[in-house]
Amino acid sequence: ADIALGFEDGDSDPTTGVTARRSSSVWELQVTGKPAHSSQIFRDDIGFGAALELSRILDRWREELSAIPNLTFNPGLIMAGTDLTHDADNTRGTAFGKSNVIAGSAIATGGLRAISPKQIELAEKLMREIAADSLAQTSATLTMRHGYPPMAPTPQNNQLRQAFSDVSEEL
Fold first, then answer.
1. Helix (H, G, I), strand (E, B) or coil at 20
2. What does the pLDDT look like over 94-133, one tens digit per residue?
3. Three-state DSSP class for residue 4
4. How far apart are CA 46 and CA 146, in angstroms?
5. What are phi and psi of 150, to 5 degrees?
6. Model confidence pLDDT, tens digit, residues 131-171
7. How distant is the alpha carbon of residue 155 from its chain centre?
8. Contact 157, 19 (CB under 8 A)
9. How far is the C-alpha of 171 from the C-alpha of 164, rounded, in Å?
10. Cα(58)–Cα(50) distance, rounded to whole angstroms?
11. What is the DSSP string of 58-122?
12. Radius of gyration in angstroms for the set of CA atoms belonging to the chain, rounded to a whole number
């Protein structure tokens, strides 16, 4: 569409109109590490484990992506342990682990919303670079699924909103 009006209650204020829409993308981050007894963590040959690597990646994403205006990133499901089962279709899973074992697997899934295709590209690039900069003995795989596209705010959208508002007020 060249012009769009949104009649959803996006900002919880019925006196406003929405002249843009953020996209909807879903991401999945799978992390592997070397499982071992916790007394061996941080050794060069054992590394940091999947749980700490997942945490590092999510925190770096938070730092980088939260600085981009109108972009949101959110992990909705996080699991780590010795044994994981992820039911992606139902957004659930099970995890088993012990307090004295370094997690060998971790997974996080969540959403990304952006106001423009350029923001999606930038966010995905940053996410991939951060995930690829792995801690010792760990690796991460990022999968992205893009849903509906963004519709950035434009002067034309605002003109249409103003025309609609003028007619509504006159009536």
1. coil
2. 999 999 999 999 999 999 999 999 999 999 999 999 999 9
3. coil
4. 35
5. -75, 160
6. 999 999 999 999 999 999 998 888 988 888 888 888 888 88
7. 29
8. yes
9. 11
10. 12
11. HHHHHHHHTTSTT-EEEEEEEEEESEEEEEGGGTEEEEE--TTEE-SEEEEEEEEE-SSHHHHHH
12. 21
Distance in angstroms between the alpha carbons of the first and the last residue of the chain: 27
Nearest CA to 114 out of 54, 49, 46, 26 is that of 26
The vertex-72 CA angle with 70 and 76, nearest 5°, equals: 165
| Residue whose pair of structure tokens reads 């879903």 in the numeric block | 26
Q: What pLDDT was estimated at residue 169?
A: 85
Pairwise CA distance, residues 75 & 52, whole Å: 15
Q: What count of residues does the chain have?
A: 171
Indicate the pTM of the whole model.
0.86
Alpha-carbon distance of 108 to 54, in angstroms, equals: 8
Specify the 3-state DSSP secondary structure of 39.
Answer: helix
54, 56, 59, 64 alpha-carbon torsion, rounded to 10°? -110
**Chain-centre distance for alpha carbon 140:** 15
Q: Report the alpha-carbon distance of residue 47 to residue 69 in Å, rounded.
A: 35
Rounded CA-CA distance 124/38 in Å is: 33
Phi/psi zone of residue 85: left (φ > 0), alpha (ψ -120 to 50 degrees), beta? beta
